From TrEMBL:
Residues 145-217 form a coiled coil. GO terms for cellular component: cytoplasm; membrane. InterPro entries: AH/BAR_dom_sf, BAR_dom, Endophilin_SH3RF, SH3-like_dom_sf, SH3_domain. It holds the Pfam family SH3_9. It comes from the Eukaryota. Residues 24-270 form the BAR domain. Residues 283-343 form the SH3 domain. GO terms for biological process: membrane organization. Transmembrane segments: none annotated. Belongs to the endophilin family. This is Endophilin-B1.
Length: 345
């Protein structure tokens, strides 16, 4: 118990000394030890990284989950480590109402039949949207949040310790200056000024060593924060790929709906079919939708399934095949099996 009391008194004394030192610095009556320029630069970069990561994360969460109530609910479920509710998207609710209305009007009614097909399309778009939101959370939001909640929290904690070490160091410097000014004078405590100076200088050496050691720890952590941007860049690439797939799938779904509606009304439908003339001759990559399953007959070809969205590149001199890319796999695919997706049209 005595040891705990002594430690409590010692900690209270150190805290009081830091408050006094900080107050004197604020009033300009005490000098402040400045961090070296490299450490200051790293700290500024880390603060900027933290600030912008927090802002991007908030905005991204708002884009993917516009309803603030749902965001709060999701946050609550994450904290208690429970599965999030599988809520429907607005598109899916619209689709349900359209299907119900179409059934009410009857399948023989042109408008009712069209409502059914459009409603089914809205439901499919809603499912694609939920899949994209899930992918974006895994590849981008979760890594950014983990960075803020682990790496940046550690940096903030160690920076706070460094500031306390600096205050202790400057307080020791002040005691040394005061002890030196007392040399040759009579001490009120009965202890000679030489002894007080020796004690103050020993405390200063210990404080300087503690400060230098903590500064090195902080410097290493801050350098790690700077290198974390490479990881964030990979996450950003993955997010863009997920977003490109999302819009391509939405476009392909809407083309299917246009085709079905044209069939109902008897009107013409002109899909954007893929030919090698549609693919630029400088190896530019484009997206294409698979019209039907294709099984590779050799190692040079790529097997794909109907409605899969892949990347295609022209094969110079070959009008019948293009090079298909699906994830980490690539191979030749017949042009006749593909439909070009022009998301900018």
């Amino acid at each position: 118990m005595d040891l705990n009391v002594k430690k409590l008194v010692k900690d209270a004394g150190a805290a009081l000394s830091r408050v006094v030192q900080l107050t004197e610095e604020t009033l300009g009556t005490s000098e402040k030890t400045e961090l070296d320029a490299h450490l200051e630069h790293l700290a500024d970069r880390a603060n900027a990284t933290k600030t912008w990561t927090e802002k991007i994360l908030r905005n991204m969460e708002a884009v993917l989950t516009p309803n603030p109530g749902n965001r709060i609910e999701d946050f609550f479920y994450e904290k208690i480590d429970k599965k999030k509710p599988n809520r429907l998207s607005n598109l899916e609710y619209v689709g349900m109402d359209m299907i119900e209305a179409g059934n009410n009007f009857g399948p023989g009614n042109a408008y009712g039949s069209a409502l059914n097909k459009v409603g089914q399309c809205q439901q499919k778009l809603g499912q694609i949207e939920r899949s994209f939101i899930k992918d974006a959370a895994i590849c981008y939001i979760q890594p950014l949040r983990k960075f803020l909640e682990s790496e940046m929290k550690t940096v903030t904690k160690e920076m706070s310790i460094l500031e306390n070490k600096r205050l202790d160091l400057d307080a020791c410097k002040n005691r040394v200056r005061k002890a030196r000014s007392m040399l040759g004078q009579q001490s009120e405590s009965g202890v000679s000024p030489e002894v007080l100076l020796d004690q103050a200088e020993r405390e200063l050496r210990v404080a300087q060593s503690d400060f230098d050691r903590q500064a090195e720890i902080v410097k290493l952590l801050l350098e790690g924060v700077s290198s974390s941007q490479a990881g964030h860049l990979r996450c950003l690439h993955e997010f863009v790929e997920a977003q490109a797939r999302y819009y391509a799938q939405c476009h392909a779904t809407m083309q299917d709906l246009q085709r079905e509606l044209a069939g109902l009304s008897g009107g013409p439908y002109h899909p954007t079919t893929l030919s090698t003339s549609n693919v630029s001759g400088n190896d530019d990559e484009q997206l294409a939708r698979v019209l039907c399953d294709f099984s590779a007959s050799n190692s040079e070809e790529l097997s794909v399934v109907q409605n899969e969205v892949i990347t295609v590149i022209e094969i110079p001199g070959d009008e019948d095949y293009v090079m298909g890319i699906s994830g980490s796999k690539r191979g030749k695919i017949p042009v006749a099996y593909l439909e070009l997706i022009n998301i900018y049209k």
